[in-house]
Amino acid sequence: QVQLKESGGGLVQPGGSLRLSCTASNPTFEPYTTRWFRQAPGKEREFVASISWVIGTTLYADSVQGRFTISRDTTNNTVFLQMSNLQPEDSAVYHCAARSTDGQNDYWGHGTQVTVSS
């Protein structure tokens, strides 16, 4: 079983930055891909970004393209989401999800709250 833990959320003013981290409990776990999602109150869960583990191919939602950067540290089994120029509409609980290489399992973290407010 793999557990994911997100960290790095918090309160930031509009235009500010945060870096989220997603770390797997099993140091030998190598996902096929890791994705970030977010969910604001009363809204559906929204895809934010993804990164493939081996090659590092990235994909972004249009709403964050150019402001967010996803990256991975394969040594420490961690995926990062660097968020810049944050806006109030970015406020949400951010979750990471890792898909196993056989595609049979998706592992989710409990999420970290990001609040953008002046």
Write a short abstract of this structure.
The protein is mostly beta strands. About 0% of the residues lie in helices and about 50% in strands. Strands 2, 4, 5, 6, 9, 10 and 11 form a seven-stranded mixed sheet that branches. It has a four-stranded antiparallel sheet with strand order 1-3-8-7, with no helix packed on it.
Descriptive notes:
There is one protein chain. The model has no long low-confidence stretch (mean pLDDT 95). A hairpin with a 4-residue loop joins strand 7 and strand 8. The protein is globular, with a radius of gyration of 14 Å. With 118 residues, the chain is mainly β. Strands 2, 4, 5, 6, 9, 10 and 11 form a seven-stranded mixed sheet that branches. It contains no helices and eleven strands.
Name the structural class: mainly beta
Order of helices and strands: EEEEEEEEEEE
Biggest sheet record = 7 strands, mixed
Count of separate DSSP helical elements: 0
Portion of residues in beta strands equals over 45%
Over the alpha carbons, how many angstroms does the gyration radius reach?
14 Å
End-to-end separation: 40 Å
Query: If you average the pLDDT, what whole number results?
Result: 95
Question: What proportion of the residues is helical, as a percent range?
Answer: under 10%
Q: Any idea what the shape is?
A: globular
What's the number of extended β-strand segments? 11
Low-confidence stretches: none
